Amino acid sequence: LLKTSLEGIAYNDTKQKIKAMAVKPFAYLYRNILDRKDLFTAVFNIKPHKEELDPSLKQMNWMETRKYADQIGALESKSNPYGIEDGYFNKKIKQKLKQRQGYLKNDAYDQSPEYEDLQIVLDLLKQSGAKPLFISVPVKGSWYDYAGFPKERRELYYKKVHAQVKQAGYQIADFSN
């Protein structure tokens, strides 16, 4: 719904505008559901969980902070060799670990409809005059290797996203390696 509605706004094309008009009633219904959810959250004072930050972090420089983060990450991912947080790994992955080996071997991220979605976002940002900074975050390489999605294909994905963002004239902070 959102994609179709945004395409109707972003592109001056009759076909896109007709599609946007067709989904408009469903978009309003969905928006009403979200409004009710927001009202429920406000009435019952439901707040998102926020972790307490360690106050000593404010005293650290970048290298110290990075070293500290590496230590915390190692402490919180002792149950597996993939660097995945223990709670998540034990609850969601451990029971199916053997089934997950090589499960991404036939996947490729060089062709995906998500690139079109990204282009819509880039076009809307340009249209609004925004100047965002995109951040490219790494995936867990050892996990993706186990799952059958090798580094070469991951790098192809990173390059494609970087090129698309840069072609739109935006900066990208690359933490992918």
UniProtKB/TrEMBL annotation:
InterPro entries: DltD, LTA_DltD
A Pfam family the protein falls into: DltD
Lineage top rank: taxon: Bacteria
Signal sequence segment: none
Name of this protein: D-alanyl-lipoteichoic acid biosynthesis protein DltD
Organism annotation: Bacillus wiedmannii
Taxonomic lineage: Bacteria, Bacillati, Bacillota, Bacilli, Bacillales
Gene: dltD
